[in-house]
Amino acid sequence: MKQVFIISTMALLLSSCGGEKKEEAKEPDIKVNGNTVTLTDAQLQNTGIQTAKLSTQSLSSVLKVSGKVDVPPQNMVSVSVPLGGYLKSTKLLPGTHVVKGEVLAVIEDQQYIQIQQDYLTAKSQFAYNESEYNRQRELNQSKATSDKVFEQTKAAYQSQNVLMKALEEKLKLIGINPAKITANTISRSINIYSPIAGYVSAVNVNIGKYVTPSDVLFELVNPTDIHLALTVFEKDIDKLFIGQKLLAYTNTQPEKKHPSEILLINKDLSAERSTMVHCHFEQYDKTLLPGMFMNADIEVKNNNVKALPEESVVRFANKQYVFIAKSKHQFEMVEIQAGVTEKGFTEIIIDPKHENESFVTKGAYTLLMKMKNTAEE
Length: 377
What we know:
Blueprint: H1 2-23, E1 31-33, E2 36-38, H2 41-47, E3 50-52, E4 55-70, E5 76-79, E6 85-90, E7 97-98, E8 103-108, H3 110-141, H4 147-173, E9 189-193, E10 198-203, E11 210-211, E12 218-221, E13 227-233, H5 234-237, E14 245-250, E15 258-265, E16 274-281, E17 293-309, E18 314-316, E19 319-325, E20 330-342, E21 345-349, E22 359-362, H6 364-376
Antiparallel strand pairs: 1-2, 2-20, 3-22, 4-13, 4-17, 5-12, 6-8, 6-11, 7-10, 8-9, 10-12, 13-16, 14-15, 14-17, 15-16, 17-21, 18-19, 19-20, 20-21
Keywords: Transport
Family: Belongs to the membrane fusion protein (MFP) (TC 8.A.1) family.
Protein name: Efflux RND transporter periplasmic adaptor subunit
């Protein structure tokens, strides 16, 4: 009886071990051949793979460029003194705000005295010549004087008039009103007035220095029309157009965006195969100063590109791939170039011979993991 019990127990244990072996039966191995992976029906069902053809999508990309804040020539003024002289006084510092017509500096020189003296002398002589001319004209009409005397008087009158007008213009050039000059108001100094409203960007002189007409005393900037000058390379120029919107930002405050619009695209290329694109700020910001470096994001539209859902593209060893369905169970991993990604789609740049294939749109990463794990075993 004892032997029967032992035999029954051993049979039960053997039966139990046989059941465990059935439960531990392994799933058939995934077949990998180079960049091709083959799945069984069960594996295909578990991965949930879906496929689709390339579709045409209208996607936009962002072109990142850099440049600096610039001022158009009509808004930047270099202030000089027309006839030279010594700088007597100025209170300007870089950054000082000035209004149009404000006195920027006082220049003095003895030549200013001489010009005023010459003008008053010429004016007095002109008054005499004019009176003499009128008198000789009346005498000539009555034949009381010769034509020669009259012509000489007329020539002297006209010459003096030219001299006086020339001196008047010289006075206006140095900022002196000829109508207000008298013997008692002759001055050795002149005022330099601001031709625009804005701020001082540079002061190039100091008190007591002698300046010539070619010297730039101050540089003024009218900030109301500052713009952004961007450097764009040749390959990207055809993506831009007048009126195109962009967002500009500085390196110190990248989160603060400055909406802008393309105003002008230069037609000349530099030696580096780039050109300047001028943009207008929609709203002037006083913190933006000429010469400040800025970056810009320009939205560029690419119409009718071939694309797949974003999850179709997998990355491995710093390269990008998609899986092509060679059959129901077989999939080939093919390298591609991924372009613009927007609205859940990615532009696919692939060998034209594959453009009409079916691509894995769901489960691509699962395929990649199974393929690489199998290859490592």
